[in-house]
Design a protein that fits this description.
Elements: H1 3-24, H2 36-42, H3 65-102, H4 109-121, H5 131-141, H6 147-158, H7 164-169, E1 176-177, E2 183-184, E3 196-198, H8 203-216, H9 221-232, H10 239-242, H11 254-266
Antiparallel strand pairs: 1-3, 2-3
Length: 288
């Protein structure tokens, strides 16, 4: 065999061997491994991996209306009774001074100063020359309010003590103030208005301001007139009757009065009103 033929056969042998080795060692390429995050998205967790969802906390059941009313009245009524007692003590002092004047005994300088200060607090305009006449005007204003009326108005104005103004400002009667920062700005205050709902340190302070407002503001003179008539006839101070003098307390007018009377009637608040008042010795304060 010549040399060329030997080289050809050797080449064929080598190529065949390489092909055989390649077939024996071939591994198909695997697809690229997906991102672990992709797998986590696609796989459904097994039962052992599924976390139990915590049930939402049960909502607190709403307070029954009867309980809400009872709590409100129980807290406010003692304050109303205490306020009436304070007003009655002041009124007794005015009656004593009236009797003194009627007997021709001059008032001391301190007594006269106290009367003038009280007159300014209750919006009685001076000048003050006649102590008898001043006492007469004061006795029409320094007077009690029926508990039924105070409770009904507070319930109406404060939503049984749960309104924003009652909770955040101790304001039970919706009273306004007009100095920036003196209270809370109503959310729906009309543009151009500058009033705020007054802030009070306590319910007692709110109640005291309410008494002073009802007993001094010109808008509530009708209430004071009804009260004076009841006193002149030695009749109890009736909350439903005095409510008739509060038409200007709310823009709702007569509807507001009816709502107060309904609160008094439905909740039987009239039983809290004072009994027939004892006749006061002096009769000068009954004159208008």
């Amino acid at each position: 065999m010549n040399t060329a033929r030997q080289q050809f056969l050797l080449t064929i042998f080598l190529l065949g061997g390489s092909l055989l080795i390649g077939l024996l060692t071939y591994r198909p390429a695997l697809p690229p491994e997906p991102e672990i995050t992709t797998l986590m998205k696609k796989q459904e967790p097994g039962p052992e991996l599924q976390l139990k969802k915590q049930p939402p906390a049960p909502a607190s059941p709403p307070t029954p209306v009867a309980v809400k009313k009872e709590r409100f009245f129980s807290r406010l009524l003692p304050l109303v009774l205490a306020r009436n007692q304070q007003v009655q003590q002041l009124r007794d002092d005015l009656v004593r001074l009236t009797e003194k004047v009627e007997e021709g005994i001059p008032l001391s300088g301190e007594e006269w100063s106290d009367l003038q200060r009280l007159a300014r607090q209750y919006r009685i305009r001076g000048p003050f020359h006649d102590p008898g006449r001043l006492l007469e005007k004061l006795l029409r204003k320094v007077d009690l309010l029926p508990p039924s009326l105070a409770l009904a108005q507070a319930a109406n104005e404060s939503a049984w003590g749960e309104s924003r103004f009652a909770r955040d400002a101790n304001n039970l009667f919706g009273q306004w103030c007009f100095t920036e920062g003196c209270g809370l700005v109503p959310k729906n205050r009309p543009e151009g208005m500058n009033h705020e709902v007054a802030y009070f340190d306590s319910w007692q302070a709110s109640l005291a301001a309410y008494y002073r407002n009802i007993n001094s503001h010109p808008a509530y003179k009708p209430l004071r007139d009804i009260r004076a008539q009841l006193r002149a006839q030695n009749l109890p101070l009736d909350g439903q009757q005095l409510a008739l003098g509060l038409e200007k307390y709310s823009a709702r007018g007569s509807i507001y009065i009816e709502s107060l009377q309904r609160i008094i009637r439905v909740n039987k608040l009239d039983r809290l009103d004072q009994p027939r008042p004892a006749a006061e010795k002096s009769t000068r304060q009954q004159r208008s």
